[in-house]
Amino acid sequence: MHAAQAEEIALNKVPAVTLVFWLIKILSTTVGETGADFLIFKLHVGLPVTTLIMGALLLLVMALQLRRARYEPWAYWLCVVQVSIFGTLLTDSLVDTYGVALTTTTAFFSVALALTFWLWYACERSLSIRTIYRGRREYFYWLAILMTFALGTAAGDWVAEEMRLGYAVSALLFLAAIGLVGVAHYLFKLASVPSFWMAYILTRPFGASCGDWLSHSVAKGGLGLGVVGTSDVFTVIIVGLVALLTWQQHRVPLAITPR
């Protein structure tokens, strides 16, 4: 390994985009959806209080992630799960507490995400998702991640609920859209950056629709497995996969020590 390549790996704060990456991302999305529902409806905490609590926890885990010198699986994925929960609550608060229409929230977060990308590129001259270092680039990265979760929540609820397609049909539609992105990338050579972000946005409503389908009652179009059971199973799988990534990372020592 060349010294420059080793340094790039050592200072990078994000994981390689692999099949395991996408699997954990989808699972974390589902946990975000069912976890938020568990706090609101099962523990009867209420949406406003739950949003405040999860916002405070997000600041805590984000501080842990930002303090890391390089990518550490536990810190990164803990942050993703927490961003997933808070992004869900952010959209739900606008819709359920303030009565903002799902079409409006979808449009708003689309514009917010586009603005985030514009500012990111204007400052960094790059939207690379392979080299995210400490500092300004990492801040833009996590802001974009938050916007994708909020946008995905709004778009997913719009398709499943307002269009009355149901959770299973919505999941299939978003899965098909993800497949189209894959075809565009691998067959028609769509660039990796737009391919990544389109897939990242679409996996949010796909995972949320899957979570709702598994957890909601049969009367509401689900399988009736409950938010507790669904969240517990998916959380265990996430922990196992993150442990695997951590073990793999420690098996390959870096050539240099991170600065």
SSE blueprint:
Blueprint lengths: L2 H9 L7 H24 L4 H21 L5 H25 L4 H23 L11 H27 L4 H20 L5 H24 L11 H25 L8
Keywords: Membrane, Transmembrane, Transmembrane helix
InterPro entries: DUF347
**Coarse shape:** globular
Query: How many distinct domains?
Result: 1
**Percentage of residues in strands:** under 5%
Largest sheet: none
Structure classification:
mainly alpha
Helix count, DSSP H or I runs of 4 or more residues? 9
Unreliable spans are 1-8, 255-259
Topology as a string of helices (H) and strands (E): HHHHHHHHH
Q: Fraction of residues in helices?
A: over 70%
On the 0 to 100 scale, the average pLDDT is: 85
Total count of strands: 0
* Gyration radius from CA atoms, angstroms: 18 Å
First CA to last CA: what distance?
Answer: 18 Å
What does this structure look like?
The chain has 259 residues and is an all-alpha fold. The protein has one domain (3-251). Helices cover 76% and strands 0% of the residues. It contains 9 helices and no strands. It has helices at 3-11, 19-42, 47-67, 73-97, 102-124, 136-162, 167-186, 192-215, 227-251. The radius of gyration is 18 Å and the shape is globular. Mean pLDDT is 85; it is low at 1-8 and 255-259.
Provide a brief overview of the structure.
This protein has 259 residues and is mainly alpha-helical. The chain has helices spanning 3-11, 19-42, 47-67, 73-97, 102-124, 136-162, 167-186, 192-215, 227-251.
Main features:
disordered C terminus; 259 residues; mainly alpha; disordered N terminus; 76% helix; 9 helices
